[in-house]
Structures are given as structure tokens and as C-alpha cells.
Amino acid sequence: MNNAIPKWVDIGLIPLLNLLLALLISGLVVAIIGESPIEAVKVMIQGAFGKFGIGYTIYYTTNFIFTGLAVAVAFHARLFNIGGEGQAGLGGVGVALVLLAVPWPHWTIALLVASLAAMVFGAAWAAIPAYLQAKRGSHIVITTIMFNLIGSALINFLLVGPMKAPGMAPETSVFPPEAAIPSLYDMFAVIGVSFDKHSPANISILIALLAAVFVWFLIWKTRIGYAIRAFGHSEDAAVYAGISPVKIIMVAMLISGALAGLMAVNTVQGQARHLVLDSVLGAGFVGIAVALMGRSHPVGVVLAAFLFGILYQGGGELSFAMGIPPEMILVIQALVIMFTGSLENLVRVPVERLFFSLRKGGAA
Amino acid sequence: MELLQLMDSALRLATPLLLAALAGLFSERSGIFDIGLEGKMLAGAFAAGAFATFAGDPSYIGEYWSVPIGLGLTDPLKIPLGSWGVWSVWIGLGAAIIVSIILAMIHAFASITLRGNQLISGVAINFFASGTTVLVAKQWFAMGGNTPSLDGSQRFSTITLPGAEAAADIPVIGPIYEGLISGHNIIVYAALAAVPLSWWVLFRTRFGLRLRAVGENPGAVDTAGISVVKLRYSAVLIAGLLCGISGAYLSLGTSAPGFSPEMSAQRGFIALAALIFAKWSPKGVLGAALLFGFLEAIGNKYQSIDIGAFVIPVQFMQALPYILTVVILAGFIGKAIPPKAGGEPYVKER
């Protein structure tokens, strides 16, 4: 007997219902603080897609694609990498170090070395928790939380000490102009399309989309991807099939850390052009919500990242237009994580029951 | 003298860590991971600050206790007040406990009843608390997410233990008694008393034995005819209670009382670290909380420490609790072994 529910229910209907529940409760919260939820949605959509908003929406989406993919790759090996925040922060340190070290002759080269540095530093920050999980069985959730906090202390130390620019603020010097990567304004100008000049969106969105394709290829088309999925499905079966847990944990976490680190190319090289405190601003944690909502599939992750991009840009607009505090975004984010993550069975169990009873009825 | 001052401030800083780590102890010993300590503390801190304000602030006291509830209602909710003002701090504490328990029950429902992922649930609760506290604070008080500063009966006052002033002149013992042991508020003493109490509950009562068993081997407990679900719910409930007290201490028990956004400042994670550092034992939790409190006290007092050959930056002191926890987790200094069934939802066999 086939016990599986149809695929469209599993990856379409159930996540959609979970998301709807989360948004419904969010609307309720808006109503409780005395504002109209419908008006709020309108303001958010206008804020996210308006002439000056869309660039920011794309900028946030880029961040969330990187961190979402990072969490997703680890999820496939049944590892919960909660350390995206620290890995992305260290990625920023890598970017700043290479871009300040030597004057790079052209932005293409600067982009290449900055990306490599971001990946290496992000992966390095994931490496110790990964090693401790693989070799000593230390719980990766706890160690990655600790590494977030250690990382933030380290970045703090670097920015008031060794890497600090002259002046008062805890930040590095501004990168040389040759290291500036093209913004979407520059890119659209080439084909004669006008785009908001002040938007922070830049060429990193293409790197993010490439990264999504890479993750899809890695997870579903390569031997190691197969091994990662097998390991995530059943560790015992994977070991029996000759897959080394140490190797899988290390590979999955290093790729995960590298993806999180890559986010710094968008924020540090693309937007801020120097390293500041708090360059990640919670994007590492948004990655958890994005991966859960996107069900760890690159297509889902890109869509979910876009949704969160809209939420972050449009949510910021809420405080200007309606006086709804920007913390509303955090509440919605929490509800999305809750309903698509920990409370998932609230919808899944009844829907599955419904389908089984329908099938029984059909068979009889 | 300087050391005494440091230890005094270490004790104050250790108190919220101690309470939250004990909360984690109950929850995790029953097999429910709790990385939502931070969120429960923060929500508790806000509820305490808000309700102590409502109960004790003259602008809120009239014939009624007015709560601007929102929901499109133009009139605030009116609750007859009488003379509750003197009880403000206790009303604040009660509110903190209730709010923290509500969050704990969401965690319990997700992890026990729905068998969802306990770690994800904790993450969600942390975000939920950090968003809603500021959202509601802005709505109720319009002070940028803060509550008004509190004084008088709205805060926990310090207690001078009997004979402290008289004993101050006795060498050695006098200053320790007067300067270190005496002069804290009730929550500090309650937190210290909670350690032997927790030990007694966990290791000397039938409830405690069952609670620990359910964290190691829920199947066996179930076979003995004892409800796994009930035990785990009670453990998470106790965790909610303790986190609420811990949060109330942050906003009502420190030298500048009142709630401010993100005032828990990662203490929930330091408490989690303390719990692991303590290898899930009550006695160890006391030691770890005092150690981490001491490190924080040093970090607050000195910007950097010059030990001759090189200078230890303050950021290193801040990160030390986390580094020590990773070292302990790695098993290089004695192995920290978590409860065996931790994080796994229990599915009854049919």
C-alpha cells in the first residue's frame, strides 16, 4: 500500500497553509495594535515594489538567498546550522582584509578574491563546530550559537583594534574605488534602462542565483550530494552503505559556512564598502526561516528569500507610513518560523488524515 | 576590598543566569531542549516592567487600573484598583511569570504534543519575544520601546541582613557579611535558595526521579504506566516559572529598574552555556553562573587587563564563557553528556 501523500500536497499545499496561518496571526497582531491589516499589506507591497523600494527588496533578497541556502545545505545532512550570523560576519572580515590588503587592479578581480575570502572565512568559522560535531559529538546547535557570540566579540575586537580606521567609529577604512562592484544602476545603465541610483542592490544578486543553481546541482546531481541526502535521511543506513559521517558533516558544514560568508560580498563589498559593526543584522537568522519555508530546495529558498526581502523592505515602510514599529517584521518572522517549522504538524497531521480517508473512500 | 566589590557585583550578575540555567536544567533533564531561555527572560522582563508601572505609577492609578489594550477599543480596559500600588513589584513579578509560562507552553505544545523540532521552536520564541516586547512597549508607553523608570514599591529593594552594620567592624568576616552577603534584593537570595531546592526536587523526590528518567529513557517511564507527556509539560512549566523570575529580576531588581529593548542581552545564551558547563547538574549550575557572573563583573570594571607580557582585551573576557563552553562540549576537560533522549519527541509504540 502506498502511504505517501501526493507530492503537491507535501511541498505545495501544506507549506502554503502554514504560511497562511502565520500571516493570518500576523494580521491579528496588527489589528490588536489598532491598525488595519489590509492597509498594512497595501503599504508593504507599495513600499517593496515602488521605484525606490525595489532596489532594497532585491538587496535584502540577495542576503537571504545566501543565508537560506546555507541553512538548507546543512538541513539536507540533518544538521541545524544556527551559526549563519557568525559565519556571515566573519565573511565580512575576510572581504575587508583582502580588499584593504592590496589595491586590486579591476573590480572583476576584486570581486573574485573577495568572494573567495568571504567563502574561506565563513567556512572556517563553521569548521570548528563541524569538526567537534563530527569527531567529538558536541551538539552543533550549541556550538554554532557559541560561535555566533564568539564571532561578534572577535569582530568587535578587530574593529576597535587592529582593523580600525583612524577616527572615532569602530569601522575599517573605506575600500579603494577599484574594489567597488557594479550596482544594479550601473548594470541597467549598460542596456539603457534607468534604475534607482541610490539603491544598494548590486551584481551579487547574480552570484546568489548562481549559488542556488550550484546548490541544486550539488545536492541532486553529484555523488557527494546523494551521500549528504542519504546521511540526512538515515545516518545508520548511510554508514552501512559506506558513507563516512565525518566527511559528510565536514563537507556539508563547510559549504554551508561558505554560502553564509558569501553574503558579505553583497553587504560589505557591494553596499557599505567598508566593514562596520553588525554588518549582518540578523540575516543569518532569517536564513532559518527562509530554508524552512523553502523546504530546503533552492527554488523554494529563492522564492522564500524574495518574500522575506519584500517583508523587510515593505515592513520598514510600515513605520514611516502607518507608525507600525519595524519590530513587526521580527514578529512575522517568528510566526513564519513557528508555523512552517515547529508547529508544522498542526496542519500536516489533519491534512494527511484527510487524504488517507479520501483514498480509503475511493478504494472501497 | 576591590575583590569583595567584584564578588558582590558577580553575585548580582550571576542571579539571572542562575535562575535561567536552572530553568534549562528542568526542561533539558526531562528531554526538552530549550534554546528559548533568552526569549522567555526578555518577555518576562517586559511584562514585569510594564505591569509594575501600571500598578504603581500615579498616572495609571486612579479609581481604576487603566490598561490601554488596543484592539480598536477607544476606552482603556478598567480594572478596579483599590490600593494595589504597594504591591506593584509583586504584580510585576506575577505578570513576568505568567507571560514566561505562556511562551513555555507554546514550546511544550510544539515539542511534546505536535512533536515538532524543539530547536526551531526555541529560535521562533526568541524572535517572537524580541519583536513583541518592543512592539507592545511602543504601543503602551510610546517611549521608544522602554517602560518608564521605576522606583519605590515598583522595584525590589535591597535587604540588609540582621546585624550587618554591627558586624561590619569585625575583621575579615565583617566586611564579607556586610559587603557581600547582605544588601541584595530578595530575588538574589531566592535564586541562591533555588539551587538546593532544585537539587532536592530532582534528586530526592519521586517526581524528580521520573523527570530525569523521562529525559533518559521515556519508553521505560511509559512502560511503568507514568505519563511522559504530563511529566514533560510539568518540566517545561517549571522552566517557564524560573525564566519569568529571571526576567523580572532584570527589569525590577537591578540598579536602574525599568525595561529597555533587548535588555536580556544574550543572557539566556550565557545561561545555556552555564547549564552545559555545569554538565546538567544543579551544584554545577551554581558554580558556572557565579564564574560567568564574575567574568562579566571583571569585564564591566576593567576595559582591558594588563598581565605584563601582553594585554587581555575586554572582548576576550566577554567571549570567555562561550569559549569555555565549547571547550567543555568538545570533551577536552571532562565530557559534557546531555540527557540521552534530549531533543527527541516521544512516540508511543502501538
Q: What order do the helices and strands come in, and which of them pair?
A:
The complex is a heterodimer of chains A (364) and B (350).
Chain A: H1 7-32, H2 37-49, H3 54-76, H4 84-101, H5 107-136, H6 140-160, H7 184-190, H8 204-221, H9 223-233, H10 235-240, H11 245-272, H12 283-293, H13 298-321, H14 327-342, H15 345-363
Chain B: H1 2-29, H2 37-56, E1 64-67, E2 77-80, H3 88-113, H4 118-141, E3 158-159, H5 164-167, H6 173-181, E4 184-185, H7 186-204, H8 206-216, H9 218-223, H10 228-252, H11 267-277, H12 282-301, E5 304-306, E6 311-313, H13 314-330
- How many separate structural domains of chain B? 1
Counting DSSP E segments of at least 2 residues, the number of strands of chain A comes to: 0
Rg of chain B, Å, rounded: 21 Å
Query: What is the subunit organization of this protein?
Result: heterodimer
How many strands in all of chain B?
A: 6
**Spans where pLDDT lies below 50 across 5 or more residues of chain A:** none
- Count of DSSP-assigned helices of chain B: 13
Shape of chain B, please? globular
- The H-and-E topology of chain B, N to C, reads as HHEEHHEHHEHHHHHHEEH
CATH class of chain B: Mainly Alpha
Overview of the molecule:
The complex is a heterodimer of chains A (364) and B (350). Chain A is built from 15 helices and no strands. With 364 residues, chain A is mostly helical. Chain A has a domain at 69-294. The longest helix of chain A is centred in the middle third of the chain and has 30 residues, at 107-136. The two termini of chain A are 14 Å apart. By secondary structure, chain B is mainly alpha-helical. Chain B has one domain (2-330): ABC transporter involved in vitamin B12 uptake, BtuC (Orthogonal Bundle). In chain B, 63% of the residues lie in helices and 5% in strands. Chain B has helices at 2-29, 37-56, 88-113, 118-141, 164-167, 173-181, 186-204, 206-216, 218-223, 228-252, 267-277, 282-301, 314-330; strands spanning 64-67, 77-80, 158-159, 184-185, 304-306, 311-313. The longest helix of chain B is centred in the first third of the chain and has 28 residues, at 2-29. Chain B starts with a helix and ends in a 20-residue tail after the last helix. At the A-B interface, helix 1, helix 5, helix 6, helix 12 and helix 14 of A face helix 3, helix 4, helix 11 and helix 13 of B.
